[in-house]
Here is the input.
Amino acid sequence: MAAQPTIDTQRLDAVLGAFEPGDGSALIEALHDVQSEFKYLPEEALDRLADRLGVSKSRVYGVASFYEGFHLEPRGEHICTVCMGTACHVRGAPRLLEHLEREIGIASGQTSEDLTFTLEEVACVGACALGPLVIIDGKYHGNTTTSHLTKVVGKLKKD
Here is the structure.
């Protein structure tokens, strides 16, 4: 597990300031905004969000942990997602995942200690014609190869 970074409370206050005090109906929108700002949902932010919206902390944590799109642990600056749907799987996605694990030095589902990379796999992204597919920082790399991934990851490591 990666270290919990200290969050900028001014940035958090700016995000939370967009929501009316006591407006519990804005919970999911507020969670999205906080995650957009910090790339995950820091514990301090969730606690302050509960206070701002006037909802219990258990409700905030319940919603945040229910939806797969929310992340309670710090995530890397670069998110690498390997599609493991059937079309991608039969076209070599497991090999690409293993290659990325070696290149980045972490296993699937982990974030590097320095918070540079997060590596994850998903069941299917619905882009079967592009398989095997790897999404890096939101950019789709379709019909990709291990050599292509080496170049992309190498560039990210340099930056």
